[in-house]
Design brief:
heterodimer, A: alpha+beta, 1 helix, 2 strands, about 25% helix, B: alpha/beta, Alkaline Phosphatase, subunit A, ten-stranded mixed sheet, 21 strands, globular
Amino acid sequence: MERTLPFILEWDENLDVGSDTGTPVDDKDYQVPFKFTGKLGKVTLTIDRPKLTPEDEKKLMEAQRQKGIAE
Amino acid sequence: MPRPQKTIFVRVMVGLVLLLAAAPALAQQAVKPAPFKPEVTGEPGAPSTTTTISGEQLPPQKFGGEIKDTAQQSKPYWPMRVVPPKGAPNVLLIMTDDSGYGVPSTFGGVIATPALDRIAKAGLRYTNFHSTALCSPTRAALITGRNHHSVGFGVVSEQATGYPGYDSIITKDKATIGKILKDNGYHTSWFGKNHNTPAFQASAAGPFDQWPMGMGFDYFYGFMGGDTNQWQPANLARNTTYIDPFLDNPNFNLITAMADEAIAYMHRMNTLTPDQPWFIYYVPGGTHAPHHPTKEWVEKIGQMKLFDQGWNKLREQIFENQKKLGVIPANAKLTPWPKDLLKEWDQLTADEKKMFIRQVDVFAAYVAYTDHEIGRVIQAVEDLGKLDNTLIIYINGDNGTSAEGTLVGTPNAVAMFNSVNVPVEDQLKYFYDVWGTDKTYNHMAVGWAWAFDTPFPWTKQIVSHFGGTKQGMAIAWPQVIKDAGGIRTAGRNVFTWPRPLTGTPNGDAPSLLNASYNFKAEVEVPQGGAEGMLITQGGRFGGYGFYVLKGKPVFLWNLVDLKRVRWEGPEELSPGKHTLDFDFKYDVLGMATLAYGSISGIGRSGTGVLKVDGKEVAA
């Protein structure tokens, strides 16, 4: 996946499990509510947010400084 | 940063409450209320006895009966039910969304708004009424009668931060107009937009203290947040329950549905308790983006060719109308066009002109449609024979017309908030015909917004200029306001608000943007196979879905309806238990780089792998 969304998902629709409210993410695939017809035991979402290492911080700080000088 | 406010906003409503409680006949001028005498009906202590209260506090009602050893010896004493004073009016408080001073015909606009005209003709037109240039703050100020910083709404709810004045929390000591009127014996209700619940409390699990019902409104039918898809509003609630009345109803549109709901409510209250006045806070999503009018209105307005001359000519025309109507001073001068920021109409290409006219036709249709449906609600008041003693306040816009549509407009505001522009060429090719339908979350080019804020410069979000803050307003109350058709120019509700706003709203579900993540779903497939949604957030205009389609697992990213990236297993899931996994490894450093002035961490690449029972099936 070359690019991802940087800021926000569609804000008027909530997180749904087991069916979809509102509008489909792809009209070509299905229409709402698209209820799951099997048994859904459990859904787990684990998010691993990147953490800056001291080295990353140093690099970013340096880049910011250089940019400041250039301006 | 906040600095001391010069004047305070919208004392109208609090003043109104005091007047209602004291003496409705005095209503036009704020005269000192006479000493309060409760109006008591019937025998005190009888079950049906009512009383009025001073409106300053709720008096504890003392028990006036007797409690003896037996029921026979005892005397019951019911507390009196609190009712408004005799002749207290119904109140219909209407406010539209994102609409500048020069939009409605009532204030010189070229789009006919007969409902607002009607109120102005029957009552008074106010030419010096001001908002905060932003949705949640104006609304918070309006319903509490306080400066928006005093009630936690220095910004919109999605941008709240944990500091006083900005935390989106209306504390219990800051009662709303709903609470005050309810405690004085009114029926209170709220229809349409609610942008005053903290974003982190808007889920189906509440807490509900700061939902409309928790803030003193008996009844709520509307959407939670800043805007909604009027065709398929996924954030629509009745009281505290999310509902989806648009399923199986392809003609559903919330602008019409909420008028129907308000009218039905009015009838219900009138049938059950004809003497008890009501307060209806009526705040449609029109005309905030997405601009979603019905096809009939788009055709009707399109045929009028209101905008073929372009936005510069439009400004001149509105300005001229405003002088004729007397809603700007006779010696006013039109502010100059911002040549360094916005192209003049004559500089545009033929394609740009074609697309921008389509955008504004749909917007204008949305204005006309919204006003028309408001007109039905007003007509319902008349049909019930209650117009004479109903105070109707109709505010055009909670702030100026919005420039959030970018310089060229967008078929999808979700794309815009992710900094993705859709070029005019693509708009023409893919979205021209469906503009304003449920296939778009559309907004128009900034040039139009600037023109609709005529005669002032700037737009919504910009608190330093009247384009963002000046709102037309009309108030009618036939029984009391006798100067029908009058114009009021005094600016008693002005205040200044120094904080400029930029940025984007945030959702309340866990954000997996700019990060690595893993979805794991444990499913059981019956004989004959299964399909359906496992987990999803967002929809047609941007989001993701993890689902089973015709037996095969799919993970799909909808990149703001411009591109979809898909992982799909080649084989159908066999009957029985399975674990489905979608694992995404993000390549760069994430949001944290922003603190160093670098966007290198956001919106970049990553690798997704779809697995069934631990085995990779798509990458």
